Structures are given as structure tokens and as C-alpha cells.
Fold each of these.
Amino acid sequence: MKTSNIVIIGGGFSGLLIAYLLQKEGLRPQIIEARNRLGGRIYTLRSDDEPPIEMGATWLGKKHRHLLDLLDDLGIDIYQQYMGDKGYYEPMSVSPPQLVDLPPNEEPSYRIAGGTDNVIQTLEEGLDQRQIHIDQAVQTIRQTDTKLVIETENDLFKADVAISTLPPKLLVDNVDFSPSLPEELTHIASQTHTWMAESIKVALTFDEPFWRNTDSSGTIFSNVGPVSEMYDHSTDNQYALKGFMNNDYQAVSREERKQLVIEQLRRFYGGKVDSYQSYRELVWQKEPFSYSNYEQPIVPHQHNGHAIFQKAFLDKRLLIAGSETATEFPGYMDGVVESAHRAVRQLKQSLSSL
């Protein structure tokens, strides 16, 4: 059994950032992570001869001031997403793809230099590894007179205050509470959209960016599918195309998805696509610590930033953080940073009142 004043549930961007901020305040939280890796929905695939492939969070904008300030604090650079002047648009299956001008006034998107997980690695490096416990899915949280007892399959943790950074729906679906959480919270959380949960991200890597030599840019928008959007995902000297596949295809095999992606790209670039080096994908709906089935249809960002997530529960011993709880840019990396700072402020108030 491990005892700590503060336990953070979830070792993704939110959990690591909260730990980083608390450590700057002289506090030493423990982090419990269900997966065998840190980062959560930030997941960068790496290979020496390929560019970093982002299977999770990828882009940010100049409006994301919380995130930009953090990156500046960590000494991490950003660079502008390559879009080009033209892209392909595929309106319907009976019509060939059209090469169209991209809007010149479109707000630029940016990416994190070195890969999005550069943020995760930098935050982790600032923490004592003894604070981090992976392969520890939280099963129950029980309140006693003076503590929260947090039980995983393998261990017990005691805390004065716990901060959950799990997506709200995953928190109420996967963790048993004693006493029960308020009905209003469980109702709202169970209908809160989890960012990334239904996404299928696919990528093909190449030894040259041939799409930049066809008066195009690697930017694709398709109403036909199976890939609905695709973008240039290259670095200076390593090349890839990455996009989003329609969620309907989560039911078919990986090999079928790969062949469907290749067939679709042939419609735009012909046989050059066959020279791909590797195919990468991640079906987020098959990630049990990111997805929980909805009982009824919900819309993207539903209940994200809801006021109930700003409250403390179990006599101020349980706080809820994470991108879905942010009041600014919920569902984005910027929302992670905003919610982390809010959670730290709440934590100080909770500790002072206990």
C-alpha cells in the first residue's frame, strides 16, 4: 500500500502536467496509469527511417495560448503544418477527384517539433520515476473518514486528495465508488463525448514526397472515403501522408483497412502510392482506456467543459480534470493545460480545508 497526500489518476498529458505543476509547488504526487506507457491520447510512433507518426493529438493553433505558453516554458518549438496551395476534393463516387485551391485565409495549424510526445517525454523527465505507476487500472475508489482508498488490480493507494484525469465517461463507467458519486455527475459524465474515442488514424510512409510534385499538396477531403481527410505528415527529410478513416471501418481487419487506403490514394496519385514503405494505424475505439460504448448517440464535444466538472466531490477529496473538463478549447491539447491549472488551484483549496 502506498500513501501520498495527492494521487493523480491517469498518466496522459493531463496527469503528467498536473504532476509537473504540483512539483513546482513543492508537492510530490503519485501517478497511476492503466496503460503500459505514458501519454494517453498522445501517441507518437517512431522509427529511425520514418517521420514521427502521430496516432493521437497532433495540431495546435495560435489561439491556444495556454499550450503555447507551456511549450515555451518547456523549451519546445512548433512548426507550421504544410498545406500547399491546392488539394484534392472528392465529392462523390461517380465523379473523379477535383484539384481545388485551398482557402488562402485559412488559419494555419502547427505541430510540435520532434513529435507531440516530446511534451510527454519532457514532463516525464522532470518527475521521479518512483512517482509513476503504470499497468495500474483503477477499479474502486472508497472514501474513509480521513482518506481516499484507491484500489487497482495489483495495489492500494491512499490519498488525502485524488485528481482524476480520465475522460469523464471512462471514470464513471470503469471505476466503482463508495459512497456513490452524485447522480447528476454520473448522468452528465456518461453522456460526455470523449475526444479521439471514435477516431481511426491511418498513415503511409514514403521515401519521397511525390504528392508535392503533382501541383498538389497531400491535402485530401473526401465524401467517398474510406479516408475522409488526409494531410502531409512529413518532416524535412522523411515523408508520410496521414489521415482519418471513417469509423464504420473499425469492424474490418487491419489488412482490409490498409488495402482500402491504398486503393483510395491511387485515385489521386496513381501507382506511385504502391511504393509506400509502411502502413500505420490506430483504431481508438479498440483502446479500452480511451473508449467506452455510448448507450445513445452523442455529438462531438457534448458536455465538454460542463460546470459540474469544475466541482469537487467526496468531501472535496476528488477533483476531475482533463481536456473534456476544460472551459476553454475542451477536447484540445490547450484544454488539457487550462484544466490542469484549474485543478491545481482547486487542489490547494481542498488541502487547506481538510
Amino acid sequence: MRRCWDSDPSNRPSAIEIHKLIKSFCKFYISYKMGGSNEVEIKNQIKEAENYRKLYHSLKKNKQHPQAIYTSRLLNPYTAELQEYDNSECLDCEIIY
């Protein structure tokens, strides 16, 4: 999942990789439903993953630098005029480029 969010597109998985991963999940699920997998082992793995997630989440705290100043700012100059259109009563107005 983290690879999908990577800021560098070259580190993200390809559609083929994602397709193979989803396909393997589907095969595993079908095998599980047919009785081919050990249910106890699966439950143990899920519990272990959940315990790891909880532990990692509790250890990871967002720390702010004491000298940093966090302020919001306008990200795009084209959005500066959005406020005047936000309160418009015309709901069927045409947008002209």
C-alpha cells in the first residue's frame, strides 16, 4: 500500500503488479473457501498483523519542531477568486473558460 502512495511515480507498482496481487488474493480466498487453507493459521496471522499495527501506531507520534511555524497558505493563485463564486445564488450558471 505504501508503494502506491510514493511521491516518486517510478517507485509505485505497475497495473500488472497490482493485478497479480489482487489475483493472488482471489486465489487464496477461493482456496480458503474450498477448505484448502488452515483457518487457525490465517487467524493467527491476522492477529499478529493487527498487534504489530497497534504497536507501530502507538510508537509513531507526530512531533512538531519547536521552532517551526505551521500556517496555511494559498496553494494556487487561480483559487483566490473562488470565495466570490462560492456564495452565488445562480446554481445553473454556465462556466466559461
Amino acid sequence: MPSGREARGEIMTVQQPPLTERFFWPESMAFVGATSDLTKLRGRLFAFTRTTGYTGKLYPISSREAEIGGYPCHARITDVKAPIDLAVVAVPAKYVPDAVEDCAAAGAKTVMIISSGFAEEGGAATELQARILDTARRTGIRIAGPNSEGFWNGVGNVCATFSPVIETLPHDDMPHAAPHRRIGIVSQSGGMGFAIFTRGRNLGLTFSHVVSTGNEADLSAADYMGAMVGDPDTQVIVMLCETIRDGAGFCRAAKAAAEAGKPVIVCKLGRSDAGARAAASHTAALTGTHSAYRAVFRKYGILEATDMDEAVAIAAAVATCPLPRGRRVGIVTASGGGGTAAADIFSDFGLSVPELSPALQARIETLVPPHASALNPVDTTAQGQSTGPVSAEICEMMEASGEVDMLVAIVSAAREKSVSLEPGRIKAILERGALPMLAWTYTLASKHAKHTAAQGGSVLSTDARHVGLGLSKLADYADHLRAPADDAGDPGPVLTRPPGARVLSEYEARRWLSGYGLGGAGDVLADTPDAAIAAAEGMGYPVVLKIQSPDILHKTEVGGVRVNLPDAAAVRAAFGNIVSNTAVHAPAARVDGVLVQKMAPRGVELVVGVVNDATFGPIVMLGAGGVSVELFGDVVHYPAPFGPARAEALLRGLKSAPLFDGFRGAAPIDLAPAAALISRISHAAAAGRDIIAEMEFNPVILHSDGSGISVADAVVIFRD
């Protein structure tokens, strides 16, 4: 965060360079606060770097020791008369700002601050972090952390972390299932980032980097993600985060990852919004912070995990498997119960287990006992496996048949000396690239079994749900890559906030958005019963009357709406009733008049809303049920702006989408007018991103009689 001095312009800032490969691949490293005392984190930090194969220059900085591990110490980093790519700072927090100044003076390109006691503690400690950022902006040095667990580069043997996981590396004898498909980890929790690493290695996955972002005073998670997108040694990216501090940077990195064909898996912590916040609109109540994240994930094809194990399961699938053509699973199992359980679980993830053709069943039946099943799941029975592994041969038959899109082998993997997996044949299936293949054991997995699977280029999971999740997310990613690029549509005019306005009533909102085709042609604002009757006579009965006030968002709650009024007498009575109700229930409200509208025909009701998310900007929400949207909870979200094609795809993504196709004998609905409207709303949201807090159009009524759509209400709320 900027300090008060910088805000007053007293500090000259320089253009900060982007994160370069010298961060992950430093040719020289200095350790400020180095010690030979291995009971201290900073002692282990320098020891790990010395003992894990780093071949660059090392400079321990200590005024108390002459040398550490054979490396001569310098009292200050400015005493090092050589280039320094990375300085690692591990001293008490109160000394860190001066240490960073010294690092900048010494010409260090990046500083990794391990020390804690900054903004994460609040209070005066926040000012310490502000001083560090002042130095970065004034000198151009980049800051990683503070409060970081550091990073590890597994390709270049660069260790700048105190994580105890490093001590396990010399004992890691797990084969690498996909050595050329390395995974990079970006984690806002250092401990959990390295936990993902160990869980992945337990399955045979290969990793390029693990980075702990710390407080992200300068460099953000998006910066590290972007660096990994450009890193030829990283093919898959896993991010664990609580929040994204640089939404625009994250979106740029996500877009670049999709274009590079590098899957990104995000485990977002803090998904539950802290209670249903008191919201001014249905849209706000149904568009919490995590909804905005999911909207962005959807746009860029990011694969979401809910915990570390899910992140590892998804990473295992995308790192070891080719992309599938579809979602049909072929299962080969030695346990009938295991096959049934897997089929049930896979269906929960939107996968299908189709019955195989009679011809393919006949071929499989030549390999299995008479009492086995060749339907799918193919149950070889334990007897069938006892005469020699047949799973791989059956998988090869299904691979060649074109009847399935992915394969799963289900085995018992408890024995240490044998398992019914043939690594050579599994590897050949994966290398041919036609079908992904994973394995599940319904027993615990022996070390031998896990090694055997990894030698075959695959992973052996002990959780069928993780297999189903991994294959489902793999199919999602394939769908995203094959989908046509979003057509953003045509932008509309510039929007300017009306002077002094906080909320626009329906009549005002329609006028303000008229340049986006949302003007409500034919509506009349009346200030007397006679004016309302004249308007009704002009547009034809039946009509609707609604109170108009920027202080009343939910008009029905104050008795401010009357519908289906058939004649002048009804209009006169309704006008008086609405005005009197408003005076009773909202006596302080400013009333602009009563809006007269033509009564819209019945149809399928939607709500279209916008919330301007603090991280990602305007997010459009579509929901089924109109004013009852919170009851049904059938909603989708997407970042603005987008074109009509995307809008129609979002409509088709609602659970209630069958209503558009003539459900139970009703006439089908042409979605083109609704898609065009939703696209225009998204462009209005983008045009007003600096001034709009929320917009809602509710209900939007879709008609099946060829009359298009009706927008029955609208409201605009501006940012404070």
C-alpha cells in the first residue's frame, strides 16, 4: 500500500521491471541474516540452498560470523562487489526496511523477504510494509513477500525456502509419471503450497516450482502465475489463494495460459461469503465474492478445486493424460462392486459409462471367465485377473473401438510384489494420445503399486471421486480449448453519472441507458390520476402502475405496484392507493411520480443483473424465476462485456433452460432478442465500470408468441 509521503508526491517512483527468469534462475544469491545455527529458520534457509545442488554464487550476509559452510560472510550486502540477482532477507521485521534499502543500493534485482510481522499483523506493522513498498517504487527493485516461505526451483536446484519438505527430497524415490509435464505451484500459504507438492510427488507427479507469495506487498500471485505461463519448464499451473490482489493481472495471465495451452488449477480458499450480506438487490445477494471468481474461472477455462487433494487430483489428470474427445468412460475392473461404485461416482461428475456394442462385448468375452461381465464396467472378476493381467488388453480394445473417450482401470493394489497393471501397455495407450487413462484402487495402495503406475506414465488413486473429478475437469478443459473465442459484441456510448445521483429509479434508469436499447419506449411518468389515465388510454389496456422513487428499490414491499388494470376507473383507484401506501410505508421517500406501462404478456421470467466486483470489475448475473430468483437459486455469472453468442450460451447453462424449448407443450422461445439484450447490458456495465455499483433488470420476460422480450423493471445503483 502507498505511504502517506508517496500519496503526497514526495517520493519519486520509477517504472518497475517485470518479474524475470532471474528470479527463478538466479546466478547469484545473497542471504541477509544468514546464520550457521540450524535451529533457526534462517539457518536452515541458507543450509538448504547450499545442500540441494545450487551452482551459482552464494553470499551470506552476517556481521556476527566470518564464514558459514565454507562461504565467507559480508557484514552488509553493500560490501558484495558483484552482481546479485536475488537477495533473501530473514531478519527481524523492524530491520527489514533498512535491509531492503541496502539491497537496492547493492543492485539486487529482486528481494525475497522471509521475515514476518508486517501487514498481516495490522497496526504499526503495516507502516513497515509501506516503507518496503516505498523503496521498491522509488528504486525499481522488486519485492517478493514479506511473510513468505520462499520458493523452490526443482529444475534448476534453486532453494530459497526453509520448508521442511526440502529435507525429504534426498529420500524421494518415486518415479516420475510425466517428467516432461511439470507443474508449477503458486500459493498464498507457503505450508499448503509445499503440501500440494508432497501429495503430488506421492502420486509420481513432477514439479518445476513452488512459490510462497507471502503478503504480496509488490509482486502478486498473478505475477508469479504470468512468469510460469512464460516458463518452458512449466506445463501446468496450480494456484492456492485466499484472494486475488491484482484482478487485471490475473486475467491477463489466465488468458495467456489458455492461449499457451497450459491448464491452470485454482484452489480458492474462503469460498463462503460471510453470511448473506444485506443486499440492495437480488443480484447482490446472489453474486458474492466467490461468484465473481467462478465467473472469471469460467471465462478463461480455469479448473477449480475445493481443497488440496482435489487440486492434486486435477493436476494428475491434466499432467499425465491427453485431452478426451468427450465424456464416455470405459471401465475395466476386477471387482464388480468397485465398478458399480465407480460408475455411480463418475455420473455425479457428468461422465457417462455407456454399454459397449455387442461386437466389442463378444471380443472381450474371449478374455474373461464365463461369469464375467463385458457390458461396461467390464468386470473381469478376480479369477480373470489370476490367470494373467487382461485389463490392459481390454483397455486397448476399447481404445481402438471409438466407443469410449477415457479409460479407468480398477485394481486391488495392496500387495507389495504384484499388481494387475502393465506399465508398458498403459504408457503406450497414453503416448498414442487418443484416450486419457487413470487407475483407481479400492484398497490402499502399496508402494510397489504406486511405482508401477507411475512407471506407466499414469497415477494410481485411492479415491474414485478424485478420478471422476480429474477426468471431468480434463473434459471441461478440452471443451474450453475447442470452444470458439468470445465475440465481445459492439460497445455502446460513454456513460456519465448524473450529478448527485446515488440510485436511479426505473424511469430514470431506462432514460440513462437509452443508448443501449434499454429505454422503455412508450412508458409514461404521471404525476396525477388524470395524467395516468391519459397515458393508459394512449397505450391501451391493460396497464401497470408503479411508484417511482430513488429511495424505494423494492416497490412491492411498500404497496407501490398495481398490475393488469383494465380501465380508467381501475387506474384512478390504483394511483390513489399506490400514493397513499407509499406515504404510510416510506414517508421520507422522494416520489417522482407513478410510472404507467403496458401490461406485458406472460412468459418465462429471468433476472439480469450486474455487480461491480472489487477485484474483477463488472460481473453479469443471469437467473431464472424473475422476482423469485433467490428462491430457486438457478443463476450463472460471467464477466462483462460479451456478445450475444456468449449470452445465449449462458442462458442455455441455466438449469431451467428446458423452459426455452417448449417445456410440456409450450411454444419454444427465440432466445436471440434476450441474448442481444443481455449483451447490451454487459456493455453498459463495462462502460460504467468506474461509476456503477449494481444494476438489475427484473423481471425480464421472454415471450413465446413472437413478441420478443419485456423488461418489467430496472434499477441502477452508483458507487459511493
Amino acid sequence: MSKSTRPITSVIEGIQTSDGAGVKLKRIIGSPELDTLDPFLLLDEFKNDDPKAYGSGFPPHPHRGFETVTYMLHGNFRHKDSVGNEGLLTDGSVQWMTAGRGVIHSEMPEQTEGLVWGFQLWINLPKKLKMVEPAYQDIPSDAIPEIVRDGTTVKVIAGKLGEQEGPAQTKIGALYLDIYLQGESDFVAPIPEGWNGFLYVYEGSVESGDGTTVGTGHLAVLGTEGEVRLTGGSGGTRTLLVAGEPINEPIARGGPFVMNTRGEVLQAFEDYQNGVFDKAVS
């Protein structure tokens, strides 16, 4: 008996905005159209070949209570933090950062010309993990496995697809795939029942098994039951498929801090202002 198709429940486009020191980007999750999609707090796409639009980068700023996942399609960004960690994001690489109890870091372009294109995803942490020790996973492009089959190429960044498991170690159940579909090729992926998920099409268009077509620059929110079934557009399609286990806890958000209560957010601001931010304990 074949499994049902996981439907698309809504399609959104997001908004153009800026962050850091004026870096122009598109915000899809975290926008007025889609505030959150538990456990996902934010999805940004940054794409620009004008150095004036990205040259000032993201100077030092704090985070607490969640994880950030930066996936670079093109370009070079250097990451540094307040305790001496440093890494370079290059074409196809990923940085999976657990901010936990607190990180102050910067992300700055390591180029003065050419295209910068990538995504940043914020993933919430449950209350029991919000104050864990900060941690980093710097994952080079050649460490990300690819599944190539019948006109489809899938990069498995996190989670499991068939027998292939992604290199990222996740704090909660999560799946992060980058999918390339040659013209009108098909793709099917099981996702655990009850998980929330989305497609973000960044080149071409894709048709879901429920008949919904999603174009470039649009995010499709998925239902919580059934398999994901996709057919690529005639010119080829590139899309992210991301899913995660919902946390189902209160969310208190204040700028770069995501906690469970307003009091915890205020404490994060106080710790940061008092210079004990990344030394705090739960």
C-alpha cells in the first residue's frame, strides 16, 4: 500500500530586509507571513554580487538559546567568536553552531568581489538544552554525502535519507536536504509523522504530489503526515527540504536571544551587558 502525499498547506514569499551591518537579505521564516514554524525560528537567504551589499558583514553580536545553521552555496565568510574559535565557510560548506548558554561571534566576508549566496536557519532548543555549552560543527563541502539517482542529486546535510546519514549532529530530530532535480525528474522522501517541514525553492520550480507548484524564492509549508513527493520543473530545480521535530514549548524572543520566558530573555540581556554572557550557567 502506497503512503499518502504530504500536502503543502501554504506558500509564502518572505520580505526583503537587511541585518548585521546592512547586509541585504530575504527573510522568509521570521517574517510577518510566517513568524515561526516550530522548531524553526528564522530562515534568511542572502544573495548578492555587489560588495556594497555584503561587505560590512555581521560584526560581533550575541546569541543564546538556539542553534544557527549557515549553508554557503557560493562565497567565503569567516567566523570568529569571543572564546577563540574561528572557521572559514566556503562554497558548499556548512557551519552548525549551538549557541546554548551564550556566544558572541562575527561573520565577515573574506572577499571583496563576486557572488555571495547562502542561507541561515535558526533552530530552537528545548528548555533543557538552552543553557548547554556552546559548540560548533564546521562541515566542509566534501564531507556532505550526495545521493545521485535517476536525474536527482541530494546533499544530505543532516538527518537520514534511506541509508545515507548527514554529517551534522543535531540536538533534536531534524532533516536538512539540498535537492537538485533535472528537468521533470521525481523525488520522494519519508518524514516522521508529526514533524513540521518546508521546501524553499531557490532555482526553478517544483510541483508537489498534491498538485501545488512552488516557484523560485517561495517557501512551501508542509503538512505533518505523508511522504514528500516532488517533480522538478522543465528547466531543472534546486530546493531545500528541511524538517524537524516540534518542541511545543513557550517561545520568548528578544533580538538575538530565544528563551522560554520574558524573564530569561531579560537575564540574557543583563548577562551580556555585564560581560558575563558566555560564562553564565543554568
